[in-house]
TrEMBL record:
One of its GO terms (molecular function) is DNA binding. The keyword Cell membrane does not apply. Residues 1-58 form the HTH lysR-type domain. This is LysR family transcriptional regulator. GO terms for cellular component: protein-DNA complex. It comes from Domibacillus epiphyticus. Pfam families: HTH_1, LysR_substrate. Signal peptide: none annotated. Belongs to the LysR transcriptional regulatory family. InterPro entries: LysR_HTH_N (IPR000847), LysR_subst-bd (IPR005119), WH-like_DNA-bd_sf (IPR036388), WH_DNA-bd_sf (IPR036390).
Length: 304
């Protein structure tokens, strides 16, 4: 087993395919495949599961990846300390539901701790894809919420996929509306108050289950309903159509400006926002840095 082979495995997971990893590593696909197969033979495990649709990490591979990342990181620290080597490219990826605070933390992580070279990935994506990204270690962690409505289904799914859920904070439901919306000046609103306004929510694609919805009370029928795929579009429609969406109440003026406000929703429900991680992996240094920034951002906006 060589350090280079460990780097090969890390790059394949990062790229999601052997072909793309080979291209980035400036080597042929057969050579890369051979190197990985030799490593698997030496270890006596299958790091990757190979199918007609591509490759995914095996359970053993997920555990191995955690150790590989640590070994490579420590080796690079030694090289910099004793051989005056240039800083290596830092790697980090996170998949998240559409939360501004997740983006804020990502920005702060890069500003405070980014190296001269890095390759970071932030995926604002659908709930099912967050779970898939973390299961396959395409992302080191994922950020999503659970509630009394979806908890049983979501926790069972995460258990089956070998994922752990770590709570970050609990929140009561709020609505986000335009500052010019008639409801913006209210101290609180009810679901009945929202009846005539367009409800905005994030579409979940092929896996459009109510349990995957990013908004609470998604099963309630509405006269006006619009599905969007990104946060910027949703906020533009909040302003342009006087619509609303239901979320945590944590709103970042740095990213969203002062045109959107948060108003408490009078419903006896609580959501738990947290991060998920593969049980077999070990958190990298950049992941721990990101989580620390995330906690600080949440604390800042939840307790201004």
């Amino acid at each position: 087993m060589t350090l280079q082979q460990l780097k090969y495995v890390i790059e394949i997971v990062l790229c999601g395919s052997i072909n793309e990893a080979a291209r980035r590593l400036y080597m042929s696909q057969p050579s890369l495949s051979k190197a990985v197969k030799e490593l698997e033979k030496e270890l006596g495990i299958d790091i990757f599961l190979r199918t007609s649709k591509g490759i995914t990490l095996s359970t053993d591979g997920a555990e191995f990846l955690g150790y590989a990342r640590q070994v490579v990181e420590q080796a690079e620290l030694l090289e910099r300390r004793y051989f005056n080597a240039a800083p290596s490219r830092q790697l980090f990826s996170v998949s998240t539901q559409h939360y501004a605070f997740a983006v804020n933390a990502f920005v702060e992580m890069i500003k405070k701790h980014g190296a001269p070279e890095y390759q970071f990935t932030l995926r604002e994506t659908r709930t099912y894809e967050i779970i898939e990204d973390v299961k396959n270690l395409r992302s080191e962690i994922g950020i999503l919420y659970i509630s009394s409505f979806n908890e049983k289904v979501m926790m069972q799914m995460m258990k089956e996929e070998g994922l752990d859920f770590h709570p970050l904070f609990e929140a009561k439901p709020h609505i986000f509306v335009s500052a010019k919306n008639p409801l913006a000046s209210r101290s609180s609103v009810t679901l009945e108050d929202l009846e005539d306004y367009p409800r905005l929510s994030f579409e979940q694609g092929e896996y459009n289950s109510f349990y995957y919805a990013e908004e609470m009370f998604s099963t309630l029928p509405r006269k006006k309903s619009i599905h969007v795929s990104d946060r910027a579009t949703l906020f533009n429609l909040l302003i342009g159509l006087n619509g609303y969406t239901i979320s945590t109440g944590i709103l970042s003026a740095d990213l969203n400006g002062s045109d959107i406000v948060s108003v408490p929703l009078e419903e006896d429900e609580t959501i738990s926002v947290g991060w998920i991680v593969h049980k077999k992996t070990r958190l990298s240094r950049m992941t721990n840095i990101y989580l620390e920034e995330l906690k600080q951002i949440i604390d800042y906006y939840a307790n201004p």
